[in-house]
Amino acid sequence: MTRSPMRLAALALFSAATIPFLTAGPAAAVMVKVSTTFYDVSVIDTSQSANSTLFYPLFAGGNMPWWNDDLLASEFAMKVYDALGGGSDPLYGPLFAYRVDPWVGEVSSMAQLLSDLHVQDGVVTGTGDVVKYAVAKVAPVPLPMPVFGAAAGYGWTRRLRKRLRSGSEG
After folding, report:
1. Do 102 and 15 touch, CB atoms closer than 8 A?
2. 59-108 pLDDT, tens digit each
3. Does residue 14 fall inside a structural domain?
4. Is residue 80 part of a domain?
5. What DSSP string describes 70-128?
6. 3-state SS, residue 142
7. What is the pTM of this model?
8. 53 inside domain
9. Residue 52 CA: distances (Å) to CA of 10, 16, 26, 134
């Protein structure tokens, strides 16, 4: 099967025009896969008392999928490792808060040591302490995937039409 020079030129032009859109820009968040879901994890400088809705189970589940689960907070911290840089303590990454004790005024969190993937510490901060907390949202499907799927489907239908036309002519 040979392709016409005009068709190859159009394909080259299309490829050159779409490549800039497919390359990643500067990351404001880190994408990690936990279980079967991808998350965009980023950092926010705040305190529990200044941003209390972020820390309550009803609201935190959307921003902190590890809420009320110290093992899941630990898994997220390990997956992120050093990709978000230093937290409030430069030796550790941001805090993955998983529980608030309003009676004592403490926030329990996990922190990943940046120099060793296998070392984490439980950290307790005051509800009024401004520190770097990790937050996460379910990552959207990357744009190129639907585009490639549509292109593949279009190519398949064209081949099928061609095959049907050649079968009805012969």
Report:
1. no
2. 655 789 999 999 999 999 999 999 999 999 999 999 999 999 989 999 99
3. no
4. yes
5. HHHHHHHHHHHTTTT---SSTTB--BEEEEEETTTTEEEEEEEBTT-TT-EEEEEEETT
6. coil
7. 0.66
8. yes
9. 54, 47, 30, 15
Count up the domains in the chain and report the number: 1
Residues 6+ apart with CB under 8 A from 99: 67, 68, 70, 107, 108
- For residue 90, give its domain range: 30-138
For the chain, percent helix, then strand, then coil, each to nearest 5?
A: 40, 25, 35
Q: State how far the Cα of 54 lies from the Cα of 46, in Å rounded to an integer.
A: 10
User: Within a domain: residue 13?
Assistant: no
Structure tokens at 145: 């995937």
Coil vs helix vs strand at 136: strand
**From the centroid of its chain, how far is CA 36?**
12
